[in-house]
Fold this protein.
Amino acid sequence: MSSNKELFKILDSIGKSLDISEAQHILAEERYKAIGKWLAEGEYCILGTGKKQCFKDGDIYPQGSIKLETAVKPTGADEFDIDLVFYTPNISADNLSPELLKELIGDRLKEHKTYKNMLSETNRGWCVNYANEFHLDITPSLDNHHEPHNESELVADTKLQQYMPSNPRGYAEWFENISDIMPTMTITKSMFESRNSILALEDSATVTEIPEHNINKPLLKRFIQIFKRHRNVMFEGKDNAPISIIITTLATKSYLYCIERFSYDNEYDLMVDVLKNIPLFISEQYGVYTVNNPTVDGENFAEKWNEKPIKKISFDNWHTSCIQFFSNFHSDMGQDVLLNSIKEGFGSKPAELIREQYIQKIDKNRAVGTVFGSSVGVMSSVKANTFYGI
């Protein structure tokens, strides 16, 4: 097995530790479905007209990183942000201003004895904060009646005082279709020889492959989690961090570009190629940058780069730093250097996770004698479990 394949096992193990747990997912789903039911059952009075509006056919659904399965645990807290859309198909934007739609949704939430004490306002909607669990960010949306053949919805942007087209479901479908495409993986001579040598050793000794982990998530989703975690650590406590939708969109386009043109003998090399080719999908003309939404014509995810150049500079700094990190993250580093590198790039908890996996493997193998592979791809004797530098 190639050393880079072992490195990706480490990263995949870290990525898995950053996932929202099954229990958290079930609880979050129960919470947001209850909110959706409460909103849909409400009768909304439009002030000044005496008219009442009912959103009985409203549908609440997840969008963003939770929907795409690319969410990562926060670096400084235990709360996930879960983005939701409350879609109201029977309401026309001609009859309801963005400010009023948002106000009606907020008023209905405030009528609930529990939600009213957990509520805060956002630019496009409302946030219900379950302390020490997660934030549920709710964006109201309407059907885009003006473009009946367009799958996009309209969201209320009260800052801009207008409705903006959005297509969370279409974006999720585009993303899933690409993430489901598997790359062409080749077996090299060195991989075959390495595998044979490991099999030969297994007859007389236990071979340590650290950490042992089965990859059970599409590669693209894991790549994006890894990139986002590096971003989170790099920008912890700082402003202008690159936004997730830009990282996700660019990485997805780059992934498709790479797997359509090249074959790989390990996941790690593919991940690094995806990262390096991200700039190919940023358009620039006369100093104006564009990262197109692949599902909404004319929507530019990088619009704020043009309003605030520091955001583009921050993205470039992150991209350069991330490439440099993986250039230095290699199989020749010893355990302590590897663990320190993980801590630097991904934080203390992932480093502690890999440290514990090392210890468990070594303790298990110590019981049977000689251990091979105490650093990636290297044979050495077992040392005491000190792991200084974490």
Remarks:
- The CA atoms of residues 233 and 344 lie 8 Å apart.
- The first strand starts at residue 43 and ends at 46.
- Residues 309-328 form the longest helix (20 residues).
- The chain has two domains: 3-17+179-372, 22-166.
